[in-house]
From TrEMBL:
InterPro entries in UniProt: KOW, NGN-like_dom, NGN_dom_sf, NusG-like, Rib_uL2_dom2, Translation_prot_SH3-like_sf
Gene Ontology process terms (BP): DNA-templated transcription elongation; transcription antitermination
SUPFAM superfamilies: N-utilization substance G protein NusG, N-terminal domain (SSF82679), Translation proteins SH3-like domain (SSF50104)
Keyword Heme part of the UniProt annotation: no
Organism encoding this protein: Lactuca virosa
Record keywords: Transcription, Transcription antitermination, Transcription regulation
Pfam families from the UniProt entry: KOW, NusG
This protein's name: NusG-like N-terminal domain-containing protein
């Protein structure tokens, strides 16, 4: 064999030593599921009695929390169920169970008084055995006309509403709502469900009616008092006008006091004593008069004081 063809091999010199790690082997262990855990969870579930006892223990530990009061308050706030079904709730005959109550009837504002009168006549005719009482919350306003008469007109406090006291049932409700002209029904609230809904009348409590009666009484007293004060004021104005007219008439009819221009006077003092003459000039502010008389057959004028002359009576 030719030696030139033989290749020489040397071990390579590496810059750093290398170590070859053996691959780690992962051992997988099989998972064995048993039904023991489910039995343990069922064993931990408490019975109803044990839960109650546990709740009682917690409540006793938290003494600041009174669970009885909390439950009572929730029961009081929760409205009691009055009707067993919606049909029973819509039954208007159930209103008669409450006995005589005050109800609000909506009437026409334009002809409120006439509508109420016709409604009462129709109720008395068709329900002679029933008892009715009507109250219109209005104040009677007085107005004095030019001819001296007093006009009285009612001013309603609740326009379009009339209070009716009676025992209400379905028949009476339908008669007032459908047969009475000018009546728009009762004031109430919508009851029922999606199948059927109606506007069920709602009664007015006794406390609310007492408040309405008191309001009408107070406003009527205030209106009457204001009318009386207005009357007294008019009387005083008339008296003052009549007095002023009398004073003016007296001042116009009063005759001026003292001598008058052109009157005949007699001189009672001074150098022309006992002479008689006629007043030619008169100065009331200065209190002087000019008297003309005849002296030695000639007309003479003398300026005198008012106190020096006296008017001669004819």
């Amino acid at each position: 064999m030719n030696q030139e063809l033989l290749l020489s091999w040397r071990r390579p010199c590496l810059p750093f030593p290398t170590t070859i790690t053996k691959p780690t082997t992962v051992v997988f262990q099989p998972i064995r599921a048993t039904l023991q855990t489910s039995f343990d969870e069922k064993a931990e579930i408490l019975t109803a009695k044990e839960k109650r006892e546990l709740r009682n223990v917690k409540r006793e530990e938290n003494k600041s929390y009174n669970w009885r009061e909390d439950v009572e308050e929730r029961l009081l706030k929760k409205p009691k169920k009055q009707f067993n079904s919606w049909k029973e709730e819509l039954n208007l005959d159930k209103l008669a169970v409450m006995g005589p109550q005050w109800w609000i009837v909506k009437v026409s504002r334009a002809k409120g008084k006439d509508t109420v009168d016709r409604m009462m006549q129709a109720l008395a005719k068709n329900f002679p055995d029933a008892e009715f009482q009507v109250f219109t919350a209005a104040v009677s306003e007085k107005t004095k006309l030019k001819n001296g008469k007093i006009s009285i007109k009612p001013k309603p406090l609740y326009p379009g509403c009339v209070f009716l006291n009676c025992i209400l049932n379905r028949e009476l409700h339908n008669f007032i709502r459908e047969e009475c002209e000018g009546v728009g029904g009762f004031v109430g609230r919508m009851v029922g469900n999606t199948k059927k809904q109606i506007n069920k009348p709602r009664p007015v409590s006794a406390a609310d009616m007492e408040a309405i009666f008191q309001e009408v009484k107070e406003k009527q007293e205030a209106t009457d008092k204001a009318f009386e004060e207005q009357q007294q004021l008019e009387i005083l104005e008339k008296k003052s006008l009549s007095l002023s007219d009398k004073k003016v008439s007296k001042s116009r009819s009063r005759k001026p006091s003292g001598p008058v221009l052109g009157s005949t006077v007699r001189i009672v003092s001074g150098p022309f004593l006992d002479f008689s003459g006629t007043i030619k000039k008169l100065d009331r502010k200065r209190g002087l008069v000019t008297v003309g008389f005849t002296l030695f057959g000639k007309d003479t004028l003398a300026d005198l004081d008012v106190s020096e002359i006296v008017e001669e009576k004819k």
